[in-house]
Design goal:
Elements lengths: L12 E5 L3 H4 L1 H12 L4 E5 L12 E3 L6 H14 L5 H7 E2 L1 H8 L4 H8 L3 H12 L4 E5 L1 H4 L4 H14 L10 E3 L6 H6 L16 H11 L12 H9 L5 E5 L3 H4 L3 H9 L3 E6 L11 E4 L8 E4 L4 E5 L12 H11 L9 H11 L16 E2 L23 E2 L18 E6 L15 H6 L4 E4 L1 H6 L7 E5 L4 E8 L7 E5 L12 E4 L6 E2 L3 E7 L2
Helix pairs in contact: 3-6, 3-7, 3-9, 6-7, 12-14
């Protein structure tokens, strides 16, 4: 997030898109609702489903799946055509405005309505509202990123924020809501194939030299590694022979699961390190039991870039170890003496090699965390990014054309499917589905469908039906709901016994390599 969670309550206008915030981020959503209810903020919700936040919204735009670039360009078209944009910000802090302007010129309200299904009048009203805010916050989640055009979607939201001068100000920003408690921290620590900690590029010779000196080694590679969405197909083809999976359950979470299962069966050796016996762990040759968050010391970096302490509250069960200890012991057996006394010693090394974390210490975050970047020990941290300039100087507008989703409906597969979460379960259910109370509240998978479609296809509420895509079939219970839009169904992805990702499309965004989980074509049929 460019801004903080609490900062949301300083916004005049909040634009929420691709995020069912009340179910996926219920604590953060309370700030959104307070801003609207008690601080008179206005809200625009852009979502194909009638999520709970639509009841708080001044404008609810209901786009066709996979048309985000079109409606964002449409908002910018109106803002530029009506001369509502922040000229001072655009002229002083950005580049390439004219190229972006040329592309969005054709995205008139009527043209966008033809692509997105959003009525032109609603588009105009929402554009005027966002442009008129002194501080406009954009919140988004995986409904924006999990597309073959996910990178374009994010860049388009950045375009919109820059156009209206909503970066570097309290109550503004472009704020991705991280799906898990330490997703931000994992990326910060180099959990990406092209960077070391703090997003220092592996291709940068000076950075490699610094890391070599810190670790007492030579010859660190300058080659960019693989994303998981590249690794699994390579396992299928025999190019990858072994895999080591830590804290992930791809045999529920990967797209096109039937293909993923075949890919894993082609491995010669599989190691899984986790806190429970997941569906993926059941296939492993070696299982390494690790401790959970309450059983270890360390830090998490949350969605607002706040680095926070986590402290051991109870002992781990049986032979479970800290993840860092497991890693160190494997390294020793492979010939590198990776020796640390504790998690605190590891964090001290992180500080030494990571400029954005250099000023953060256990002492400074003993009671409350700090936002990175925090380059020195007397630095207060950076709650709001880009207050005076962007990381590389001026912000760059991107001229982005609309590209449709990778898969479309037809006579055989007449409905679109989108996937997501429900309030009571989390990700692949590794933890939540072992909790009796949560299983009572959300015991099984379902397909959420509009009443018009249920009637059209002759499907009774609460009945069991088969849902099939070009990749697989699952059996789920019907839930006729006002949340659904005609032509589109929704299935949560938590349930391994009816895994929504047996249906989803593995087509990738060419930049991020994220699959298109949010759009695929399906058909419904009655269970025999």
């Amino acid at each position: 997030m460019t801004n903080t969670i609490g900062d949301i309550e300083d916004a005049d206008v909040i634009l929420v898109t691709g995020s069912n915030t009340t179910e996926n981020h219920p604590v953060l959503s309370s700030h959104v609702k307070r801003a609207v209810k008690f601080k008179k903020a206005k809200m625009i919700v852009v979502d194909p489903r009638q999520i709970k936040l639509t009841g708080f919204a001044d404008h609810w735009l209901r786009p066709n799946l996979g048309t985000d670039v079109a409606w964002i360009n449409g908002l910018m078209h109106v803002i530029i055509a009506e001369n509502l944009y922040d000229k001072t910000f655009v002229e002083s802090r950005t580049t390439d405005f004219e190229a972006m302007k040329a592309v969005v010129q054709k995205f008139t309200p009527d043209y966008v309505e033809g692509i997105t299904g959003i009525p032109a009048r609603q588009m105009i009203d929402a554009a005027r509202l966002y442009a008129g805010a002194k501080a406009g916050a954009i919140l988004y989640c995986m409904g924006i990123t999990q597309h073959t055009t996910g990178t374009d979607n994010v860049k388009s939201l950045a375009n919109l924020a820059m156009l209206c001068g909503n970066l570097g100000v309290s109550g503004g920003g472009v704020n991705p809501l991280r799906g898990q408690n330490n997703v931000q921290g994992a990326c910060d620590m180099g959990g990406l194939p092209n960077v070391y900690t703090g997003y220092q590029k592996v291709t940068d010779e000076a950075v490699r030299k610094k890391m070599e000196d810190a670790w007492g080694v030579t010859g660190l590679s300058d080659k960019i590694g693989l994303t998981v969405t590249k690794m699994v197909p390579m396992a299928h083809e025999g190019e990858i022979k072994a895999m080591y999976i830590i804290g992930e359950n791809p045999l529920v979470s990967d797209p096109d699961l039937n293909h993923a299962e075949k890919s894993f069966s082609h491995l010669d050796f599989l190691v899984v390190q986790d806190i429970f016996m997941t569906e993926t762990a059941q296939l492993a040759d070696v299982i390494l039991p690790s401790v959970c968050f309450a059983e270890k010391d360390g830090t998490f970096s949350n969605t607002e870039r706040r680095v926070q302490r986590v402290r051991k509250a109870v002992d781990g069960p049986g032979a479970a170890w800290d993840d860092w200890r497991i890693t160190c012991e494997i390294a020793k057996r492979m010939g590198y003496d990776m020796a640390y006394k504790n998690a605190g010693e590891i964090f001290e090394e992180i500080r030494r090699v990571t400029p954005s974390y250099a000023g953060i210490s256990y002492t400074r975050i003993d009671s409350i965390g700090l936002h990175w970047p925090c380059p020195t020990e007397d630095h207060p941290g950076t709650p709001i990014l880009h207050t005076s300039q962007f990381t590389h100087g001026k912000g760059v507008f991107h001229a982005i054309e609309f590209i449709p989703p990778a898969e479309h409906t037809d006579d055989e597969y007449p409905l679109y499917l989108t996937t997501g979460r429900v309030l009571y379960h989390y990700h692949t259910g590794t933890m939540t589905r072992r909790t009796d109370g949560l299983n009572e509240l959300a015991p099984e998978s379902f397909v959420e469908i509009a009443a018009q479609d249920a009637e059209k296809f002759g499907i009774p509420d609460e009945s069991l039906i088969n849902v099939a895509s070009r990749r697989g079939t699952i059996t789920v219970r019907v839930k006729i709901s006002d949340m659904a839009v005609a032509g589109t169904v929704f299935i949560p992805f938590h349930y391994a016994e009816a895994a929504a990702n047996k249906l989803t499309n593995a087509a990738l965004d060419p930049v991020s390599n994220i699959p298109e989980y949010k759009v695929c074509a399906v058909k419904l049929s009655k269970v025999a």
